Amino acid sequence: MKKALWMVPVAAVGVAAARKAGSAARGGEDRAGDRWLTVTVNRPEEDVRQDGKLPEPLERLADRIDVRTQPAPGDRGTELAARLKEPAPPEATSVPARLAGQDPRQEVRRALREAKALLETGEVMLPDTPPTTRPTPGGRLVGLLSRRSGGEGVL
Amino acid sequence: MKALCWEGVNKLSVEQVPDPELRNDQDIVVRLVAGTTCGSDLHLIGGYIPAMRAGDVIGHEFVGEVVETGPAVRRHRVGDRVVVSSFVGCGRCWYCANDLWSLCDNTNTNPGVGQALFGYETAGIFGYSHAMGGLRGSHAEYVRVPFADHGAFTVPEGIDDTSALFVSDSVPTGWMGADLGGVRPGDVVAVWGCGAVGQMAARAAILLGAERVISIDRIPERLEMTERYVGAETIDYTTTDVAAELRERTGGRGPDVCIEAVGMEAHSDGPMHLYDQAKQQLRLQTDRPTAVRQAIHACRKGGTVFVLGVFAGAVDKFPLGAVVNKGLTVRGAQMHGQRYIPMLLDRLAAGEISTAHMATHTVSLDDAPTAYDMFKHKTDGCVRAVIRPGL
């Protein structure tokens, strides 16, 4: 029994995510697919938009996203925001689409995080590989959540 | 290589896993000289920390020798003896730049999981679940250390491996509790827990000028160790009314700063313990906050409570009324190791802090599962078991 119970918090995370997605689909969060996704980069604005270009890997998405930058308050660097030019439809932001990695916002979130890391540190920290050595049903679920997590979250 | 793996709730085993490799230019690979059991490991071994996978290598407090460096590493060379902060910090995000290293923006490779749990993710930590970065742990023959220029510190000559080992996590964690708890000269400080972190919090409070430091536990050898090596007064909560004793020893005021160094599996001898344990086992609360509640009630009006123990989720019967009506400051944090480790190595070298006494047992990697069992059940006077892969 106890063996199974440790999965409860993980499942709760999934439920919370599903609820959030569900409310979006029902119109409870009418801007979910259209919201600016934002990170604060601890670099001055001229470093973030060097020569007017977007930082990598956002530059590769340039034809599909709008980007805006502004100085962050309190000398915290630069707020870097991006959103899809074509807002993601509700079905694209559903839980199945997100679990399948088909929500287009996931790619934008991942690119924002990687751009921030590259600008601040010069690299994107990679996980150890292989992540673990023994596949189990619970482990596969955690593995799926981990694979998606770079494109998920509150960003 | 051999490594200590989490295989399921309360199941540990030593397995063969692939050797670590340099994954980024700022990485190093360290050959483990020594690691140690930590009370926070017991929470993940027991299944209280979500997002563990069978086969995950655990361990996060270690000292070792650099055997490989990435091309962008500047401060370390092969052969350096290093102690490594358990939390990984990039050194350049706003949080690292402001010495809040365990909140680093760039070292948790699974940010979405942490954000779902806490609102925002923590930094990555070695061997502590996929919610907290998914990095491999250090109870192994080798471990990869990302952003090594910021998280690995050369151990000065004259500090032995065992003493240096605890500067990886326990000593800075304890120091942080006293420092960020705002301990000032003349204060009376109470510390819940006489494990390694609690002992180091008490020692930090003394070194920061506290007039009296009173540590609370129930294990006789830990209480004795705290008096002898730390220099704090002690209270055995199984034989003494802690709240009444603290009032008496503080002129009726209560301690100025209360530091909780117990965590989510707190024990007590009252009926609340049974209540908390039942709710935790049924997952109606994730953590048992017994010591936190007691600290909040015992703290003087306008005082500070610092939560050092590891908590994962939600707790029940949190005395918010006492916090508000007594005007308390309640603060907590995971360890900002990089902020303190250089200073602590100096203090260790100067003899101001003693750590080697906490290493009550030394075992090989093969015997690590047995050591964790002993550590968990506090048998044979175990405070910390040191795991040496080279034995």
From TrEMBL, chain A:
InterPro entries: START-like_dom_sf. Residues 85-108, 120-155 are annotated as: Disordered. This is Integral membrane protein.
TrEMBL record, chain B:
The keyword Plastid does not apply. Residues 25-148 form the Alcohol dehydrogenase-like N-terminal domain. Residues 196-265 form the Alcohol dehydrogenase-like C-terminal domain. Signal peptide: none annotated. It holds the Pfam family ADH_zinc_N. Keywords: Metal-binding, Oxidoreductase, Zinc. Its cofactor is Zn(2+). InterPro entries: ADH-like_C, ADH-like_N, ADH_Zn_CS, GroES-like_sf, NAD(P)-bd_dom_sf. It comes from the Bacteria. The keyword Lipoprotein does not apply. Belongs to the zinc-containing alcohol dehydrogenase family. PANTHER family: DEHYDROGENASE, ZINC-CONTAINING, PUTATIVE (AFU_ORTHOLOGUE AFUA_2G02810)-RELATED, ZINC-TYPE ALCOHOL DEHYDROGENASE-LIKE. This is Zinc-dependent alcohol dehydrogenase. It comes from Streptomyces prasinosporus.
